[in-house]
Design a protein that fits this description.
This protein has one domain: NAD(P)-binding Rossmann-like Domain (Rossmann fold). By secondary structure, the protein is α/β, with parallel strands linked by helices. It starts with 7 loop residues before the first helix and ends with a helix. Helices cover about 35% and strands about 20% of the residues.
């Protein structure tokens, strides 16, 4: 599988420039990793947009059933879904104005990666956004 993440310098730029992160698969359960990471990013000043059809609100923010329902700008799409779901999330992502797709640590899908690259996305896979933020922006 050939997945090439953006350089550390580019990831730093992306995180510095971003204001809004849509979190696909964000759980309302504070014990879940998605919640903990999104909460930390919220504490760092990012607006979090939960994308999960099973909840109404997470971290004080209205949740959306899909990326297509979000009517404002998205700077980063951060994904907490199993690898086999990434192609569907990628197809949804290209319908938005966002151009940065970030799959969390342990999540890689070559089909989704190739599809996103064909649609001019920057793609990071198998990287924890919270860890990258802590390392590059502190």
């Amino acid at each position: 599988m050939i997945i090439e993440n953006p350089s550390k310098e580019r990831l730093k730029e992306i995180l510095e420039d971003a204001k809004t992160i849509a979190v696909v698969g964000l759980s309302a359960n504070p014990e879940r990793t998605s919640y903990q990471i999104a909460h930390r990013m919220q504490e760092e000043g990012y607006k979090i947009i939960p994308v999960n059809p099973t909840v109404d609100e997470v971290l004080g923010e209205k949740a959306y059933s899909s990326l297509a329902e979000i009517d404002g700008p998205i700077d980063i799409i951060n994904v907490f879904r199993r690898p086999e779901h990434l192609p569907d999330v990628a197809r949804d992502a290209v319908q938005t104005d966002c151009k940065m797709f970030w799959a969390q640590q342990g999540i890689v899908n070559e089909e989704a990666y190739n599809y996103l690259k064909e649609h001019d996305f920057e793609v990071a896979m198998d990287l924890c956004i919270k860890v990258v933020h802590a390392v590059l922006l502190k």
